[in-house]
Amino acid sequence: MFIYKVERKHLEAYDDYYDQYSGFICIGENKKEALDTHPSGYNSDWSEGHPYTWVTVSQKDTLEVSCIGKANKGQKKGVVLASFHAA
Fold first, then answer.
1. Which of 22, 51, 61, 63 has its CA 20 to 30 A from that of 85?
2. pLDDT band at residue 26 using 50, 70 and 90 as cut-offs
3. pLDDT per residue over 1-16, tens digit each?
4. In terms of Cα–Cα distance, which of 25, 3, 6, 5 is closest to 69?
5. Which residues in 9-74 belong to E strands, given as ranges?
6. Backbone angles phi, psi at 17, to 5 degrees
7. Mean pLDDT, rounded, for 66-84
8. pTM of the full structure
9. Are 24 and 83 in contact (CB under 8 A)?
């Protein structure tokens, strides 16, 4: 498994980006799995929809995913750290 950094591109383009995630670090098998992860750690948030805190499903292509390392043996899949801009 690998460590991925997932970020929103051009967050500064939003008029008010408070109360939104800007990115997160996760453990996953591949880039697609990282892209399909929701920063809340609950992938059900994609189907329930939280468009004001993260991108919508149709906006996933606006995310930047980078592999930043290899996970240690025994690490669990999922979000390790998320960046949320609270007002």
1. 61
2. very high
3. 999 999 988 766 555 6
4. 3
5. 20-28, 63-70
6. -100, 20
7. 95
8. 0.84
9. yes
